[in-house]
Specification:
Strand order of the largest sheet: 1-6-5-7-4-3-2
Number of strands: 7
Largest sheet: 7 strands, antiparallel
Order of helices and strands: EEEEHHEEE
Radius of gyration: 13 Å
Strand content: 25-35%
């Protein structure tokens, strides 16, 4: 697997390392791209269900009820392997493993 600098899978913009984000409704590690996509880190690669919901809630600006009501036609997601030490990503094809995972979510418009 070839490692690449962290880039948004939707617009190819280079991204900063995920940071801790804490608010009343969210407690996660992630970030936001200028295209509107959000990304959330799963350090272990074993909690994808949890970060999936976190990413959708983050994309819905903390509105948990709206995130739960979204249908798959209303958003796009991508999962990338992530190395926190080098801020690089890759695609292994595996949903689990020893590497962290970044889940990207972007709401569709129109």
């Amino acid at each position: 697997m070839r490692r690449q600098p962290l880039q948004c899978p939707f617009c190819d913009n280079y991204l900063a390392s995920p940071v801790d984000i804490r608010s009343r409704s969210l407690d996660l590690t992630g970030g936001i791209c200028i295209c509107g996509a959000v990304y959330v880190l799963d350090r272990t690669g074993h909690n994808l269900g949890e970060i999936y919901l976190d990413a959708l809630t983050f994309a819905c600006k903390g509105d948990f009820d709206r995130a739960l009501s979204l249908t798959p036609e209303e958003y796009e997601t991508e999962i990338l392997d992530y190395d926190i030490h080098t801020n690089t990503t890759g695609r292994s094809g595996s949903r689990t493993g020893r590497t962290g995972k970044l889940l990207f979510a972007k709401l569709k418009t129109g």
